[in-house]
Design a protein that fits this description.
Blueprint: H1 16-35, H2 38-61, E1 74-78, H3 81-85, H4 90-98, E2 103-107, H5 111-116, H6 132-145, E3 149-152, H7 160-168, E4 173-177, E5 196-199, H8 202-209, E6 218-222, E7 243-247, H9 251-254, H10 257-272, E8 277-281, H11 289-297, E9 301-303, H12 310-315, E10 319-322, H13 327-333, E11 338-340, H14 353-356, H15 363-375, H16 377-391, H17 398-411, E12 421-424
Parallel strand pairs: 1-2, 1-3, 3-4, 4-5, 5-6, 7-8, 7-10, 8-9, 10-11
Antiparallel strand pairs: 6-12
Helix pairs in contact: 1-2, 4-17, 6-7, 13-16
Length: about 425
């Protein structure tokens, strides 16, 4: 498939920044109409515009006249300062630096933060006041760091279209790097205004193609997961190990009744089966208070240290319990059979049932599936690997392929030479 046109003038025609703002207005209206009636959508739109204009007035007063240049080849733009502090992309950062690339990390700032820190520079073309803070922060980032490739991780950001415009003016490229599969129904995944969109595999591509509302166009590149490397090439476990690894969900989901019931189901089952060891791998942002309490009450439950890597956790387990986590894909990559347990009402976005049987909602069904798994452990290992292949191209080479894609973009090479690429246009 062909790559986006490299001619910067395509993105710098007179008024194109203002045109992008008008397109965003239409897109945001359609997002509201997906969830609300016409009157409700209008009220929310008026509220949003008033807030955006007020922020724009502040942004205009906080524009910087210049920047302190800190040029780099690759700018890795984290979704927020707190995301940057989690250091989840260290494996990618180290890999790119080992290839000799000058990489700098930065964090996308909220409108209020960008104003307070004066991380704003007037864009080269006028934009409506309601979008000034997004356009000016994008211009500040690009002029400060002058990257050849900017790697973005924030889904749904209103900064993205303006980042792309600012980069194009310098002949640079915007790479959206998926940090998970794109299977969720989240409205943030409707943003599609990138030069290149690196995704895990075919299931992610299909989910993006099936979305009825998309803003902008991009070239999707199937690259696998940058979190997947040779550490997941684990030997097959011994089913006699009888060690379960539960993959925790994020802190927002942990507050929901369905996920609380799921946690309680698994804790109660562990209490009734003391001969099984149960490990819990927390989500990076979770404090895991439920499982900290459970580990204090039951001797066969262990809350893994927050610094324990997923690969190390998988190496200790014979079976993985996945509730709603992308880490279940890495479990399949490592050859660990998976049982899908969810007592809530959420859709099985990972299609576990195609590979592992029906969704588990009670303790009896959990015991039944576990027994069936242990009776044909090699067969379930094979199914786990097929599950990983369904969601993830290149297997444990995902990190290496991600680095290769960045290499290609830095050299100006067309990714279509080495990767499967697909044009993804606007929709809705």
């Amino acid at each position: 498939m062909s790559a986006p046109r490299s001619d910067a003038s395509v993105f710098q025609a007179e008024g194109c920044w203002a045109q992008k703002a008008r397109e965003l207005d239409r897109y945001r209206w359609k997002l509201l109409r997906e969830r609300h009636g016409r009157f409700g959508s209008l009220l929310r739109l008026v509220r949003d515009v008033l807030v955006d204009v007020a922020v724009g007035v502040r942004a205009k007063a906080c524009l910087s006249g210049s920047v302190v240049a800190a040029p780099c080849e690759v700018l890795l733009l984290h979704s927020a300062p707190k995301s940057m502090a989690l250091q989840r992309k260290n494996i990618l950062i180290e890999g790119l630096r080992k290839r000799g690339h000058h990489l700098t990390e930065a964090a996308l700032r909220s409108p209020s933060d960008a104003c307070a820190q004066r991380m704003l520079l007037a864009p080269p073309q006028s934009v409506p006041l309601r979008y000034l803070v997004y356009a000016a922060h994008a211009q500040w980032l690009v002029m400060t760091y002058s990257p050849k490739v900017l790697i973005n991780e924030r889904n749904g950001s209103l900064h993205a279209p303006f980042l792309r415009l600012a980069l194009a003016a310098r002949g640079a490229r915007l790479l959206q790097l998926a940090h998970a599969t794109t299977l969720e129904s989240s409205r943030r995944l409707g943003m599609n205004d990138y030069d290149y969109y690196g995704v895990f595999g075919h299931s992610s591509l299909v989910a993006l193609q099936e979305r009825t509302l998309r803003f902008g166009e991009s070239t999707v590149v199937l690259i696998g997961s940058y979190l997947a490397d040779e550490t997941y090439d684990l030997p097959v476990a011994d089913p006699a190990l009888q060690t379960l690894l539960i993959l925790g969900v994020g802190p927002d989901r942990e507050k929901e009744p369905g996920y609380q019931r799921t946690y309680q189901l698994l804790r109660d089952w562990a209490g009734q089966h003391p001969h099984y060891r149960v490990l819990f791998k927390r989500h990076p942002r979770s404090k895991a208070q439920f499982w900290s309490d459970a580990a204090a009450q039951l001797a066969n439950i262990d809350l893994l240290d927050s610094k324990c890597s997923l690969a190390d956790a998988l190496a200790q387990a014979s079976v993985v319990v996945n509730i709603m986590s992308n880490a279940g894909i890495e479990a399949g990559l490592a050859g660990r059979p998976v049982i899908h347990v969810n007592a809530g009402s959420d859709v099985d976005i990972f299609s576990h049932s195609l590979f592992f049987g029906p969704q588990v909602r009670d303790e009896h069904e959990f015991s039944r599936q576990l027994q069936a798994l242990e009776q044909d452990y090699p067969g379930h290992v094979a199914q786990a690997r097929r599950f990983a292949d369904y969601h993830l191209v290149y297997g444990s080479q995902g990190l290496a392929k991600t680095i290769q894609l960045v290499d290609n973009l830095l050299r100006g090479a067309d990714p279509a030479r080495d990767f499967e690429t697909f044009r993804l246009s606007a929709a809705g």
